[in-house]
Amino acid sequence: MTAQARKALTHLGNGSDPASREILDALPVALYITDAEGRLTYFNSAAVALSGRAPELGVDKWCVTWKIFLADGTPLPHDQCPMAVALKGGEIVEGIECLAERPDGTRFWFTPYPAVLRDSQGRITGGINLLVDITSRKLEQDKARQAGLLLGAIVDSSDDAIISKDLNGTITSWNKSAERLFGYTAEEIIGRPVTLLIPPDRLEEEPRIIARLKAGERVDHFETIRRRKDGTLLDISLTISPVRDAKGNIIGASKIARDITERRHAEAEILRANRDLEQFAFSASHDLQEPLRSLKIYSELLARRYSDKLDGQALEFLGYLRAGATRMEVLVSDLLGYTRISKHEEGPETADANAALAIVLASMAGSISESGARIVSESLPTVPVRPAHLQQLFQNLIGNAVKYRSLERTPEIHVTAKSQEAEWTFAISDNGIGIAPEYKEKIFGLFKRLHTSEEYSGTGIGLAICQRIVAEYHGRIWVDSEPGQGSTFCFTIPRTRNSVE
Ligand code: ADP
Questions:
Q1: In this structure, which residue's CA is closest to atom 8 in ligand 1?
Q2: Among 104, 273, 372, 474, which is most buried by a count of CB atoms within 10 Å?
Q3: Closest residue (by CA) to atom 11 of ligand 1?
């Protein structure tokens, strides 16, 4: 409290004068007055509001509050409170922070401003104390400190490297994972240029990143290569966001770098394994065709030329042999079809879906009229897919919609396409037998069937082919179904090839 304020308060005396009392009572700050022995002689309404109690005048001593603690939580006896110290002639320490508890258990922070009142000879006649409520400021400080500590802990315990830099590309902070990932300690690297981490052939990335940050843009999951202290390279995914000062000016960037070396290896491994598998499936199905053809031809010759010489059972076995060979032929040719899907072929790269559908419906005219199916389609778009692939999709999905029809109703099949953001969503819906929820994903696997070939013909490759085609174009395929009511197969095709490659 300033000397001037203290003088002014001293002038108000012991609060016995009604005019000064009125002023003190109207003050928005808690205030109380004591005699020279510390007994309370006056307190204002703000003191009652703050301390949560009305002390007993002439009895309660030193302090208006119920319980007091020092800032570190140690209880402070009333006779050692700042007012008591001042009245006992001790030093008045200003600006200390105390914690107090109200009788209802709630707590508040305050700073006391005690002053002693003296007579003309300088003898202490009493004291006056102002208690300034600092609870909200303390809570804000605590929150900010906690957020800082929390944040700090997150940054330190993160598995990702978290780095910040200024707009000149100078590194300003470096967490533990950055040390692990790049091999530099914080002491070694803070203050040095971020280009230390960039391989020479990628240095042009930095000005482009800085330009985007200056424009307030964020760089998300940018996959690139960076260099460790020992010179080895690592694959990383970077997410970089601009850092702003209090006025909103961009002053730097924070960078999260994730090591994706293992993921890259795993992806390359999967790609290689897939290629091997495809090569194997292709060679196997290709090489199987020849012996299969012989099997078919000779079993047919046997049936044709020697059926009168064979007894009933031999004929029955021959029938099984022929049926098996025919089924295997279909399987092998479907499998070959599956392995051959590639969009890197000659020919047109876009297809008018109306034309593709018309070709498919014409080729299926027989089975459609036999089933009595009604097929309704909307006007469909032209999409960046090879026509043969789009036809394969329609062929398999509409073929299934006809094949897995319900015998209780006329099959109704709808073909639609909806434009959604960057892609087209095609839907082929039927009112057939439907699919139980637990099989909604499995049916897209190779050879996955829910029925025997006696119930429904098929190889279990059709939907796997559809999935493979859609994946080639970075689309998705799925089914929604109500068992017994029908199914809707949907697939998406991105509108442009460039947007995905
Ligand atoms: P296939 O029809 O040769 O068995 P698919 O791969 O085309 O092979 O389909 C896999 C399985 O998914 C089918 O055996 C069938 O059980 C189920 N399925 C596919 N389409 C439908 C459909 N529209 N309605 C009901 N079930 C279907």
A1: 460
A2: 474
A3: 449
* 4 backbone dihedrals φ, ψ, rounded to 5°: -65, -45
How far is residue 228 CA from its own chain's centroid? 28
| Dist. CA 427 → ligand 1 center (Å) | 16
Return the CATH architecture of domain 351-494. 2-Layer Sandwich (3.30)
Which runs of E-coded beta strand occur in 61-97? 67-70
Residue pair 40/60 in contact by the 8 Å Cβ criterion: yes
447-471 residues labelled b (16+ CB within 10 A) or e (exposed): eebeeeeeeeebbbbbbbbbbbbbe
Per-residue pLDDT tens for 89-105?
888 777 788 899 999 99
Q: What is the DSSP letter of 61?
A: B
Q: Name the residue type at position 455.
A: E
Angstrom distance (rounded) from CA 469 to CA 448: 17
| Alpha-carbon distances, residue 205 vs 215, 219, 237, 254, 327 (angstroms) | 16, 12, 14, 16, 57
Residue nearest to atom 23 of ligand 1 (CA): 401
Kindly give the distance from the C-alpha atom of residue 316 to the centroid of ligand 1, in angstroms, as a whole number: 30
Q: Is 391's pLDDT higher than 70?
A: yes
Protein residue with least CA distance to atom 7, ligand 1: 462
CA of 443 to the centre of ligand 1 (A): 7
User: pTM score, two decimals?
Assistant: 0.53
Take atom 20 of ligand 1 and give the residue whose Cα is closest.
Answer: 400
Q: Which CATH superfamily is domain 158-259 in?
A: PAS domain (3.30.450.20)
Residues with CB under 6 A from ligand 1: 396, 400-401, 404, 430, 432-435, 443, 448-451, 458-464, 487
- C-alpha 364/C-alpha 356 separation (Å) is 13
**Has residue 143 got a pLDDT over 70?**
yes
Which of 4-8, 384-388, 402-406, 448-452 has the largest mean confidence? 402-406
Q: Using CA atoms, how far apart are residues 44 and 131, in angstroms rounded to an integer?
A: 11
Query: pLDDT at position 323, please?
Result: 86
**CATH number for the domain whose boundaries are 3-140:** 3.30.450.20
Tokens of 430: 């039927």
CA distance between the termini of the chain: 71
Q: Which residues contact 151 (CB under 8 A, 6 or more apart)?
A: none
